[in-house]
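User: I'm putting together a teaching handout on how sequence relates to shape, and I'd like one worked example. Could you take Phosphonate transport system substrate-binding protein from Neoroseomonas alkaliterrae, show the sequence you're using, and then write out its predicted structure as tokens right after it?

Assistant: Happy to. First the sequence, then the structure tokens directly below it.
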Amino acid sequence: MLRRLILAAACGLGLSVPAFAQAPQDCPRGALDARFCDRDGDLVADTPTDPRQQVDPAVLVFAYTPVEDPAMYRSVFDGFLAHLSRLTGKRTQFFAVQNNAAQIEAMRAGRLHIAGFNTGGTPLAVNCAGFVPFAVMASNDGQFGYEMEVIVRADGPIQRMEDLRGRTLAFTSQTSNSGFRAPQVLLRDQFNMLADRDFRTAFSGSHQNSVIGVANRDYDAAAIANEVMARMIARNVVRADQFRTIYKSATFPTTGYGLAHNLTPALQERIREAFFTFPWEGSALAREFGNAVPPMQKFLPITYREHWEVVRQVDAALGVQYRCQ
């Protein structure tokens, strides 16, 4: 586990992860940790030019962003991992992570090779763990993303954001974009409301927990990713008529899929091929993610520099600083 994942920064967040011994390199790197180089300016770590620093593991370890039931998602990704194994000629292993900190540490330590990081955790994974995102799930016509929604009970008294004053608002975790950072900026800048001054806060640990918590009246309201709630409704975990949405944001990118920067170039190419040639029709991925809006029906190529710009803007508004130490 991470020795520390702390929050500290003037008017915002500072996230720290432990550094693993490696001498800093004399190269351009922007915001990346000193272990990495960014000579091409794409904001992600370059593959090491020295073949001795490249890795070609016998077993490829994959982790999906932490969810309430990791065991369920193991079966959801079984078909994809079998496809990945066929194209790479390597065994694969699903790593069920319990939190973002453990997922980032595993890639930083070299124990995790391929991953889907949540929207808000992707910048920390990029800058501190050498994560290189290259795909998101999208519809067949190329639509992707989700919105942050603030939800309340449909039969409750809260009708608008201003009604949150004096109430309990659930966030998910400090690394979540839609579950913490984006709603903080929204409440501060558009409604002049601050946590623990104008409303009480709680941390549920996941979007699923937040949705269920509102349904069960544990929280008055919650900031959630609507794609998660849509999948829960499709699985009959909750009902749509239990909730009222009092705010819906602009669209954010969803989970970023990618790989560790130091895999051999040939292996990286085969991994990318596995994502973009995976047959979705009839798959467990299609059954689980096809109920999103827009539906997720394929992997679409993206770049961190372009598609995570809006997330980096939210981080900047909060004064987020990523410190890998």
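A couple of points you could highlight for students: The chain has two domains: 14-143+253-324, 146-252. The two ends are 14 Å apart (CA to CA).
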